[in-house]
Amino acid sequence: MCGFPTRGGSVRGGTPQQNIPAGGSIPINCDGSNINPVAINLLRVKLPNGDYYIPGSGTNGIAPRVFSIPAKYTEDQYIANADWIVSPKHSLQMRYMYSNNPFEYQLSGNVGQLPGRVQSDKRSSTSSVIRLTTIVNPSVVNQARVSFQRIIQDSHDSLPYTPQQVGIKPLVDAGCCQGTTFGSYTQPPVMTMAGAFAIGGGLQPAFAPSNQIQYSDQLSWTKGTHNFRAGFEYESVRYPLHFGGLGRGNLVVNSFPDFLIGRAGCAPSNATCSVANPGNTTGVASSSFNLCIFCVRSRVNGIVHYYLLNNQSAFFQDDWKVNSKLTLNLGIRWERFGQLADKYGNLTNQWASDLRSVPIPPSAPSFTDPNAFKGYVVPKNYDTRPVNEGGWGPIPAGVRQFDGTFASENRIPLSNFGPRIGFAFQPVTNGRLVVRGGAGIFYDRVGINRMVHAVQEGLPYADTTTLQHDIASLQSPFQDRPLRLLPRWFDFNTLTGSNFDKPYYDHVQTPLIRQYNLGFQYEFVRNYVIEIAYVGSSGINVGDYSHNVNLARLASPSNPINGITTNTVQNAAARVPYLGFTPIGLQQNAFDAVYNYNSLQTSVRKNFSRGHAFQAAYTWSKNLSNVGFNSSNENVSTDLWQQYGETPYSRPQRFVVTYQYELPFKAGGALGKAVEGWSASGSTVIQGGNPLTLFDGRGGTIYYGAAPSNGPDKGSSRAQLCPGFTNKDIATSGSVEDRLGNVRDPNAKRFFNTAAFNCGPPATGPLPIIGNGTDFGNAGVGIVHGPGQANFDFSVTKMTRIGERQNVQFRAEFFNLFNHPQFGLGTYPSPTSTTSFNQQLFPSSPTFGVISQAAVNPRLIQFALRYQF
Fold it and tell me: What is the pLDDT, as a whole number, of residue 387?
């Protein structure tokens, strides 16, 4: 292919004697003279068996390569139980379980790793509990409990090359950072070629043992028509973390041709750089890379923390049988969820209130100007020893040091009281009709994994670097700056600055959930019960993970932003609320999202009698939220209400039938052994498709300074409908099988009407133009639904009794009995998201509206034989 080795995957547009366009604007020369030397070195890497790490495809086009390398997995479990009746009033129960499940594999990920990377994970878990039950008197019982859980994950991987061998300057490099004294990584960065494959392994090593201990006590007291219960629990969480893998960096390359070019983009201040005059660049503002995910510089031992967290709760409940027709359940629960602390003092943070106090930072890096350090917050146990003694040196002027080991401005309130009430009422004396209802307030615990991201990568012990397009090449893809508290700055003349990328949290709230339901049960025929209920819930202060608060604003002569009156892609970083951070570079773990869930739930069931039972249930529901995508970063991220809509994980309609039938065959002798003991059971699930939100990777460039394409966690633009189209024109008609689409046949009917979005120039589509960039699209959230599903599982069982105490059980199980194809709609093509409920548009995407995956496995049949004695 034009004389250069085509050992890559999906090289686009390549034919003999024709230049191959890269994802940017630099074509690959036919003689391969402009292929990056690092790319050539990587193409030459070989595996121990002599094969190329990046496999070949011959010399004429693209050739598929199929790999089948089994993973190795073992699991051992140890269980111990003990029960001791200490005395007539005291009994002791002890439970213990330990599991160890190491595994090793090579192929993994949405965009698969090439063979040659070997990853090993050593995982184990321990769970134990001791419970003392004391009968104080016939009316009072007390249970005291101590429990312990320990989970260990220890992962490593190996590659057939080092970054030094191929000429890549690693993110953690002894010579990179202005005299910082730490070693170099010898594990290469992860590189994902968009739409093709990945090289470089994963973000390993990581060692993360977590330990939890709970102490609790519950007292039950029965007095007359009341059954009182009260109790408390104290939980201690210890989570030491050694995470070296983030220091490798995770680079997303626009395409395989871009990998071969591997160049930086034009500098914002270089007015002469262009497609016609690229020099050693791509000729445009963007480099050959799309983004850098979890690119975190640290010392050579990686990110090191010892997290501490303590939680407390208490409750009181009264189950009151008012009379023979009415029972009330009254209760209240108090919750206090502790805040994250760090034993080592490695818990620096940013407070937006301090950043706002310096709206215009210094125009150049200054280590003496306090305004350059406003916003940093360090704990009281911050290590101020000199760097050569293992510390971080003196705290610069302007940095706030607070009296605590936590990272937020506030503390979790002590007023988290959640009252609950429930009732069961029998309005008629025959007991065949029961009305039930309840309501309550619940406080939701925020998982520790939701909080550590905001503080685990902060300066000076770690530095989350962003993709700086004007310096990112295959030789040196990462930002180069020292590990220390760095000054914030921005120069309006060159439109460059400190380019910080920092997650943070400054205020912590407890998500509050309100739940309520009302329904009735009616036995309309003996053993047949119908249930109809309204079930709903709503939430406030819901966690909004990694919420982008630094989106560029739109300027005008009447509304200048930092003195700027025009909007260009190049000046986006100058129009942000917090200068010195990139337009996607300040992500807040906030507690400002909401959700609402309403449903009608019905069921009919027959209790087991005369050898058969069944239950049929139908649910109609609507689930609305402005944080359905984990982070509220669609379109204008600072406007949460324009992101309110149906959540991508809901199923608005769902019908489920389960049944069991014992075949009534009876006979004597040998024939009886053959025909008796047969039973059949099964489950049928029919459900509508998930709500889908359509995104366009070309939108929002005037806000981000480049195409977002970062997924909902960093920033996304929804799609723009072409003139004359409405939401009802998006989905095509016909069966799902008729609408699968075909990337090789542009005339094949697809699940979506592509004409509704594919008008306008290829570079921008129908998106509105602002300045020299694009606005966000106007499509709503959850505006169309994906394929529905209908699945049938079935099993047949034969029980044969042998004597009085023995029997043999034969079981045959059929999953997806009729082998009906169940379709999904593919995955969101972004390395930062794994949701399967969205479609991304690209300027020339052949996959939009194409159904590319099944939602369930084909028919699976399994047999089992069991002997019981």
Answer: 81
